[in-house]
């Protein structure tokens, strides 16, 4: 992952749970400041260590913390730092999610050695969609769940995640979400 993830996770913890909590997380992980440099590739273990330490200190399951961070990412990172990219990627929830792979391809030149996740959204029936998520990294499905909720809020669409099936392997993680969408205009 990139330092951008670690840096924004630091901001998420400090804003949501306070500076004292963040200081405890940083002391527990003993990570140096280099791991927070936004455009520098970092070992995935540094991010997992931050989430694990915050989970232990806050006594919150890591999955719940990642979900909260996903919602935070949309509101405080994507809409702020990447507002132009957000605007051109889609005008509604379905359009945006359908264009996620294209968005990731477009920013891949910014991040050397970038290994973005892959998404595929398809209509399941009248009110339901199936979203497939594939990543070389394991354990980030709760983050994606939070992202989906944040995107739903951004696009004024209620998202109810009916089910999530996840398979982890040596090649990463594959998850399939069943989503119920209700637009609010």
Strands of the biggest beta sheet: in what spatial order? 1-2-4-3
Tally of DSSP helical segments:
8
| Cα radius of gyration in angstroms | 16 Å
Reported CATH architecture of the largest domain:
Alpha-Beta Complex
Helix percentage range: 40-55%
Give the structural class: alpha+beta
How many strand elements? Answer: 4
The averaged pLDDT comes out at: 89
**Hey, roughly how much beta strand do the residues contain?**
15-25%
Low-confidence residue ranges: none
Give a structural overview.
This protein has a 4-stranded antiparallel beta sheet with strand order 1-2-4-3. Helix 1 packs across helix 2. Strand 1 and strand 2 form a beta hairpin. The longest helix has 20 residues. The chain is of the alpha+beta class.
Blueprint of the fold:
Layout: H1 3-17, H2 19-29, H3 44-58, H4 62-81, H5 83-89, H6 93-98, H7 100-107, E1 118-123, E2 128-135, H8 141-154, E3 157-169, E4 172-183
In short:
The protein has about 180 residues and is of the alpha+beta class.
């Amino acid at each position: 992952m990139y330092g951008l993830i670690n840096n924004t996770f630091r901001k998420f913890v400090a804003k949501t749970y306070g500076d004292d909590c963040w200081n405890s997380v940083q002391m527990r992980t003993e990570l140096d400041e280099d791991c927070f440099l936004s455009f520098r590739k970092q070992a995935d273990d540094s991010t997992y260590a931050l989430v694990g330490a915050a989970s232990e200190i806050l006594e919150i399951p890591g999955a719940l913390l990642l979900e909260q961070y996903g919602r935070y990412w949309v509101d405080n990172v994507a809409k702020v730092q990447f507002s132009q990219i957000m605007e051109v990627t889609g005008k509604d929830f379905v359009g945006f999610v359908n264009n996620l792979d294209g968005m990731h391809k477009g920013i891949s030149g910014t991040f050397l050695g970038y290994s973005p996740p892959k998404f595929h959204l398809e209509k399941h029936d009248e009110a339901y969609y199936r979203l497939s998520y594939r990543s070389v990294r394991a354990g980030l499905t709760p983050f994606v769940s939070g992202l989906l909720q944040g995107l739903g809020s951004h696009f004024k669409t209620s998202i109810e995640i009916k089910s999530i099936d996840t398979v982890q392997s040596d090649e990463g993680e594959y998850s399939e979400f069943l989503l119920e969408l209700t637009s609010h205009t």
